[in-house]
Amino acid sequence: MSAEHAPVARADFDQVMVPNYAPAAFIPVRGQGSRVWDQNGRELIDFAGGIAVNVLGHCHPALVGALTEQANTLWHVSNVFTNEPALRLAHKLVDATFAERVFFCNSGAEANEAAFKLARRYAHDLFGPEKCEIIAATNSFHGRTLFTVSVGGQPKYSDGFGPKIQGITHVPYNDLEALKAAISDKTCAVVLEPIQGEGGVLPADQAYLEGARKLCDEHKALLIFDEVQTGMGRTGELFAYMHYGVVPDILSSAKSLGGGFPIGAILTKTDIAAHFAVGTHGTTYGGNPLACAVGEAVIDVVNTREVLDGVKAKHDRFKTRLEQIGREYGLFSQVRGLGLLIGCVLADAWKGKAKDVLNAAEKEALMVLQASPDVVRFAPSLVIEDADIDEGLARFERAVSKLIQG
Is the pTM of this model over 0.85? Predict the structure, then answer.
């Protein structure tokens, strides 16, 4: 079989793809560590991490090894059978967390879909059909399926697709009084991101998560943590709930869980999991051997003191320099986040212009993200080398300097 491919270019996107994305003008073709090369051989530094996915950077030997070995062994058998990589990964997730049971799927949206369905089924079985209401935060993001996009607190993503799922209330994030006013005996679940990701890299207050846990207990509601973006070492702990010491009833994970290979999961307790009896929920590819083999390699590397402590040290390296740049150029007013999920909040004069910062960074061969139009987001590899951090931030400073000069 020939490895020759027909040449393609960015213009092909506009010919053959559904226009729901507006991708950059260049096409990345190869990655190694925290560096990426485009079709013209230009080298970029990657502070975007595939939107908090490439937890070990590009082509990490442990992940390449796990995928290659599994690719030569067994790809797919369906859920008529179980498989060894899925069982091994489930054991490792259970051993490392509060959880006793794991359900595997393919994405963060699917993980949240499963979490919300499980919460409703649990409440339905124990308390009856009236207890079905879900409380979420404004500006939250939980996925793009109809259910998850309805729970997400950003109407721009859920408007225009017909009737929304009923029984969902949104309250301001980090506002315990608002949550207290909204919760009732009809509430089956409260769902929160420990750090709002797409909403602007906004960490929860300690007292807020503690209060949410208490309110859920009082009202026999489940507390769901969406850790799709914060999980797998991103905050310097394996999951962000560990940083806060507040334990959820259900936790959703994806993104970094596969280090770039699509996989999602929910973690929960045995008594809750029991309500997903045989036939109640499923997924064709969920728990497939390829994804689980890679996921196992990810947790083996990430869930070590060396890597988790490294994340905290790298956070300080980023934050110190970013605050310096912020002060010098007056571009952003605050640097916030945990571990290697960092947001630079744009100053009033630059509000709404995060995309301009992204474009300026790209001109300096640096990949960064936005989280809302007011926040520039960094979600690099957890094992990014200090030299790459320093060089990337030098490029970022050049980009900021040119942007300011107009």
Answer: yes
